[in-house]
Write a structure and sequence with these properties.
The strands form 4 sheets. Strands 5-6-7-3-8-9 form a 6-stranded mixed sheet, sandwiched between helices. The protein has a 6-stranded mixed sheet with strand order 14-15-16-12-17-18, with helices on both faces. About 3% of the residues have low confidence. With 631 residues, it is of the alpha/beta class. It is globular. The chain folds into 5 domains: 127 residues, P-loop containing nucleotide triphosphate hydrolases (Rossmann fold, 3-Layer(aba) Sandwich); 82 residues; 57 residues; 199 residues, Rossmann fold (3-Layer(aba) Sandwich), CATH 3.40.50; 64 residues.
Length: 631
Amino acid sequence: MHVFRACGISKEYGARTLFTEVSFTVEAGEKLGIVGANGTGKTTLVKLLLGLEEPSSGSVTRAEGVRIGYVPQYLASPPGESVEEYLLREFRAQMAAVRAAEKRLASATGDDVEKAMRVYQQARDAFERIEGDQYEARVAKMLEVFGLAAKRVQPVASLSGGEQNVLSLAKALLSRPEVLVLDEPANHLDYVGMAWLEEFLMSFHGTIVMVSHNRYLLDRVVTGILEVAHGRVRRYAGNYSTYRRLKLEEELRQERAYAHYERRVEKLQKLVQRFADLARAHSNWGARYRARLTQLRHVTAEAVAAPAAAQPRAAIRFDGAHTHANIVLRVQNYSKQYNGRVLFEQVSFDITSGERVALVGPNGCGKTTLLRDIVTHGHWHHEYLRVGPSVRIGYVAQQQELLDPRRTVYEELRAAGAASREHALAILARLLFRDEAVDKLVGALSGGERNRLQLARLLVHEPNFLILDEPTNHLDIETCEAVEEALEEFRGTLLVVSHDRYFLDRVATRILEVRERRVVSYPGSYTEFWLTRSAREEAAAQPAERARPHVKETVRTPRPRKPSPYRIEQCERAIAVLEEEKRRCEHAAAEAYAAGRYQEGTRAAQRLSELEAELHRLYADWVALQESQGV
């Protein structure tokens, strides 16, 4: 059954065209991800499917009677509306419609009775569709399930970004949807919230259409990809990693076919020109000339399409001066309170030169506060936050408060220290700010544009210690990958906060977890940390063995508990992701060396070596897990 069907839809905003003649269907039970660069129209496509916007031409049909739950990217709530009022808004509107219809029916006379009865029946049917008689009880239960019961009367605007995401999802689920349409549902969720969202969406028995830049989420949940690019929507089978592989293979085939076509045309053109010269000198060459000319016309009439122009990609490179300090950051006996709440108690840890450290923890645990204190107060003689004397910090702020909304993009970079107009414009162009974009006010930029501007500031500062607080927020996948590649090549020290696990697995080699006002260090990648954490939580969840009175306990070697199949599955998924990246890396290295791009080939070979080491560790973990299961 078709849940959504788009037939030849186009969408225009003034002189700008987003889509042209787009057609596709979404079948019941499918789980589809929508991907594409920022500004290509992913959110607009979702709104067209839902009927929230109308196409400029073409049509969208929706299955009749299907319940749809929508989780928008940004939650809209009137000023002062409480959490409970937000969830009850539809119920109260439907209840008011029923009461108005009842009142009209009670006062109706003569010919108006039949019309009033129809209005009442329609209102009552709509009320029953949302199960209005149980709606208030279900709202109370939903608040409890999603951990929002304590914030029932709190204004929606006062919730954190992650809490607003959860609230929006709770509202969508109140309608008991058969179809979930989600626009960036992972925004602002912490690592625990992300794990919960993945499990929920994987177990959801219905149709899912989801816009997301979160690659792990797309890999785990979706079974098909809709790519929005160049005014078209193309469909690919499989999850995100499969889509990337198919896309790369398709692009390589297209490039080779086009290169072969161009060589053939060039050869024929030279041959035709040679025969034309001979025909002018010798009349008996005329037939041969005309035959070759006809052949050239046939070949050019069946021209191979040139590869589509790639989306502009950020060109990022962090060139920080070398530091002679061994200890880049020493946090010693650091404690912190905020609004009467204790965030940290006697926290101590070191970060040495060249380390790549990720700071993780639940929302509200104080990660951003700690980073701000390091940036604001840290120096070599500080009592609690010692920063090496030759260390130059570069900071990306989650709330982007470093930027002045009254300045233009160009003025912001000059204020950050760009040496000249040419220097500023060159850096801005590398971060995709060109032409009139450099004169836009910072206050008018999107979230992704502001993060790109913060990255441009880093290129001016040339730091050797990067402190990044959610640097990939609002960025599309292409720009995320550009940031990842730049950080892989960065020779300085990195301390990053991020909820993007794909990003963390690529850039971090040590994890600091904020847990119960302490900071715990884990060597290795994010996936290794998560597996270790899951094992610890499983062990802690087992009830302690009760002491047996009057019986002397003998010393026994505890039997190792079998790991859950979920841990084995996690390990297998991590291996699959890295194997796919390894395959792409091998291909990229071979292509680069074959084309004479030796520096690019060397980088790919270095990454390949890292991947092989990581895979070796993961395969060892997998074998250990299998043996523990008795396999």
